[in-house]
Amino acid sequence: MLALAVLAGGVVATRMVDASAPAPVLKPAAAAVATVAGMPPVVDPGNVYSEIGPTHLSAAVKGDLERVYVPNLRSNDVSVIDPATMKVVDTFKVGRSPQHVIPSWDLRTLWVANNAERHGDGSLTPIDPRTGKPGANVVVDDPYNMYFTPDGKSAIVVAEARHRLDFRDPHTMAMQYAIEVPQCGGINHAEFSMDGRYALFTCEFDGSLAKIDLVNRKVLGYLKLSMPSTRFREGVDPTAPGASEICTAKKGMPQDVRISPDGKRYYIADMDADGVHVVDGDNLKEIGFVPVGIGTHGLYPSRDGKYLYIASRGTHRIHGKRKGPGSVAVLDFATGKIVANWPVPGGGSPDMGNVSADGKWLWLSGRYDDVVYAFDTTTGAVRTIKVGMEPHGLAVWPLPGRYSLGHTGNMR
Question: Could you tell me the domains of the chain?
Fold first, then answer.
């Protein structure tokens, strides 16, 4: 059979088509997602990460400095790295016990969450991303971490010690309302459903998740996470014989949580289980577990939404030793399998961070080694930069995306 096609300039081209060949099977388009009011629309229902690719930098971040902001928990300051030179170019003091650097929903402010561990002087320090300089601290009770509602109307201050989520004005931080989460000890990290109707928060000290209804402002339920039969042995090279042990821990220590591209699964990093739990968020049910590395902690999607970078601290302890068997694993979202593993040469403690705007570098704090790591996402090679004391949730800026849901740059 002869087919005709009109090309540019009116030129007609011909090609032979086999009429007996079966018609190609077209994959049906995913149904449009009905989101909460005020939330930007979901562009690709099959990939929630479709808008965080390298070409999707918002006009709002034009002119912002390319920097990596590193909160140093024990020295109460922020180290500022120029990624072009891989060197610290500034250091400034903030409040007590800075935990995370958090991009605002509108991408115009980077907030340093100073939760003042076991003290009463918690605060948020604003950073102007155009100058890289801090402003005056804003007094806020116990801001361990911070997120933003998908409609941008509220900042969610995660008051970990209070078992509470404080919803505040995203600009002034004036209190709006609070949701008590009494059965969520160590509430800290979160991820939001594709439609923006609920969020899952991890409960670090209860080994569970809390599901929060963001529309009706209430707790929908809790899920106790299952522990695996074995895990990695503390202080032993994970690749050596006898590296595993029977897991006797009765509950896990869940940390970061991220959604799958299609929105159907949530991956929850667990420091005590040494892997990621896989959870059906709509039904609040655990459906799988993937072993990763000792002290599994931080989760970051690649810029194309195909992979999940998983940081493991190298220890089950909250306060670990230097030069532990820390590593980064790469999970293929499509298969749910680990496809690469990048150990830190000589040992280390990869923690929290993000992927560079171009997707070429994974930046992570070295929690127990007072350094920052830059992993080459093609080869897994690592570069190390000295920073302050006990770096934690660093932010890479600017990042692609239309808006930020908080943490160290959960962009959509």
Answer: 38-397 (2.130.10.10)
